[in-house]
Here is the input.
Amino acid sequence: MTFFEELSRACGPGALLQDPALIAPYVTDWRGTFTGRALAVVRPASVNEVAEIVRVCAQNRVAVVPQGGNTGLAVGATPLDAGDAVVLSLVRLNRIRDLDADGFTISVDAGCVLADVRERASQAGRLFPLSLAAEGSAQIGGLISTNAGGTSVVRYGTMRAQVLGLEVVLADGTRLDGMRALRKDNAGYDWKQLFIGAEGTLGIVTGAVLKLVPKPRFVATALLGIDRLQDAVRAFGVLQHMLGETLSAFEFFPQRAVALRLAHEPALAPPMGERAWYLLVEASSALALDDAFETALAETLDGGCAADAVVATDSNRRHELWMWRESITEHERRAGPSAKHDVSVAISQVPAFVIEATAAVEARFSGARVLAFGHIGDGNVHFNVLLPADGSIPREDVTAVVHAMVRQYGGSITAEHGIGRYRREDLLAQRSPGEMALMRAVKRALDPSGVMNPGAVFS
Ligand code: FAD
Ligand code: MLT
Ligand code: ZN
Here is the structure.
């Protein structure tokens, strides 16, 4: 049998795509900036099919690029230009296996879409707390493989904190079943942690047992207008102190993001009178919040850390406020090329970092416009830089300036999106030779033939 005949037999009828027109959506990243090539795309519908496909690829020394919803922002799911890899899409492996409402767990296939998992949990009176703007397409396997963050990390942590059990297919096709719903389990190495955030370079995630939390019955959202970014950190201190663990989101964005959206959607009214920066904050609880949220917001206004505030408790109005924050990435894509950065620094250092890095970038690159926004409650800034369409400012030059400043602040070049193929050269400056050697040793141990997602994370 030829390789393609073996592959076709492994993935079942109709699940092997070779027509370039059908393959095209799988070989370009979400931003539309990078396009690779692939031998084929396979779309298995069962874990056994995944295992068989990986075994066939490993035996033939053909690389496998795992792909979930293809919403990643680090170009980890896009094959290289060599055209010698198979893209393995998890899109058909999308069954919710089980929900244990009293045990607060849900077991899912890796290809389940985040919004569907949240909806299923909600129907059972539970919350799966991870939330991000791409949740209509991003899959559980992709979210695990990038250790995704999103807008509720401030309260619930990243994807890693939600995973109780994991099922993976190793680089030689072996299936490891760790679908355990245990809260405590110290039996040897906790191997699942290796695959969380591995960006598909160590194996394929095929299933997961995830934690659920009580579904909040009271949710209140507010948009605060602030004049100086330093005030955001003071407001965070006040709100954390007064709201405790009910504070479930603390995000920031600039007036420039509001202007960008209004330019694309001119019929919209601005969310409030113009301010330099905006904070999107949310509190939620199973018990009534009473006036705790308003009291805490009043404290930020009285204490001079916020200049203006609008509050929403009904879901439509809350959604409208959220859209000012969640649509930024889409509007940025429509605006043209950009150099994307996903940095983290200590929370209290965010204002100084943003101000200093903005001044450095805009002074050095005439025509570049910084759009800094994100998860300030996690110290995570999407320090994105809009670039002229004519390509006159090389993205790499801008990134060199931003990442040098990140290093000065003792921060990280990626807080949540990962390394992928977008930042792999920058990883070397972020991690010591000893750390790189350890990571390479792990890679060699789990994927000795180097078939799992080559070119991602490591050059
Ligand atoms: P893909 O893009 O398909 O893949 C991502 C990586 O995981 C690749 O390296 C791929 O090879 C690997 N992979 C995918 N599935 C598997 C699997 N089953 N097994 C092994 N490896 C696999 N990210 C955040 O963290 N926080 C945000 O707030 C956020 N907001 C976003 C907003 C928008 C509008 C967009 C477009 C993206 C945003 N992202 C955010 C990035 C993205 O949604 C996340 O990285 C998400 O986790 C990717 O999931 P996916 O299923 O689309 O994965
Ligand atoms: C978000 O938080 O909206 C995305 O992670 C940000 C981005 O586009 O860089
Ligand atoms: Zn983000």
Summary: The radius of gyration is 22 Å. The chain has a mean pLDDT of 97. Residues 30, 65-73, 76-77, 90, 110, 132-134, 138-139, 141-143, 145-146, 148-150, 199-200, 204-205, 329-330, 416-417, 420, 453, 456 surround flavin-adenine dinucleotide (ligand 1) (CB under 6 Å). Residues 350-364 form the longest helix (15 residues).
